[in-house]
Amino acid sequence: MKPNLTTAIHFLLFFVVMLNMTACAETQEQKIQKLIKQLGGEDKYARMKAAHDLGQIGKPAAGAVPALMHALKDENAETRRYAIVALGKIGEPAEEIVYDLILALKDEDAEVREHAARTLGKIGEPSKPAILPLIEALNDEEWSVRGNAAFALKAIGTPKAMKAVEEFREKEAINTIEESKGTNQ
Fold first, then answer.
1. CA distance linking residue 164 with residue 123, whole number of Å
2. All residues at 6 or more sequence positions from 116 whose CB lies less than 8 Å from its CB, including other chains
3. How far apart are CA 110 and CA 147, in angstroms?
4. Are the CB atoms for 135 and 107 separated by under 8 Å?
5. How far is it, in rounded angstroms, from Cα 4 to Cα 160?
6. Which of 6, 81, 156, 172 could form a disulfide with 161 if both were Cys (CB 3.0 to 4.6 A apart)?
7. For the chain, how far is it from start to end, CA to CA, in angstroms?
8. 156-178, pLDDT tens digit by residue?
9. What is the pTM of this model?
10. pLDDT band at 5 (very low <50, low <70, confident <90, very high)
11. What angle do CA 85, 74, 123 make, to 5 degrees?
12. Is 30-92 CATH 1.25.10.10?
């Protein structure tokens, strides 16, 4: 049984297409390196997207942690936010990112502070050095920052952190009662 010319051509085309797809396919490591380069680029939208995309990759993007930590100082608040989220999704090395997240708790942008507190909570126990800054964040003007600081302290779980969370809950309950009295009059 001889293969006919049509079958041979189909096989050859299939082989060429597969070879081309293999040659064009970008490995995950190549993509990560490309995103790291974009994270240090001039275009703020490219930096923002790179931080976001590194977060989508998660743990395999651990090699991007130094670049993401540097992005916490970016002039664009959205890039800083995405960098924090990405660091939280990568998660390792937790001890290295905690101190930069502590600094982010003082950022001028409330959403950056919120994400920093939330990420410290996701990291959990390795965030112990952040206990005092998180306790300070319980007094932030923005509720979202205060709530995420309480979440982080609870996740850290030391007696000092838990005491601060309990005091925060009592204070917030009193404030809520006082506010509701003012609206009922």
1. 19
2. 84, 101, 102, 104, 105, 107
3. 12
4. no
5. 80
6. 156
7. 96
8. 999 999 999 999 999 887 766 66
9. 0.78
10. low
11. 25
12. yes
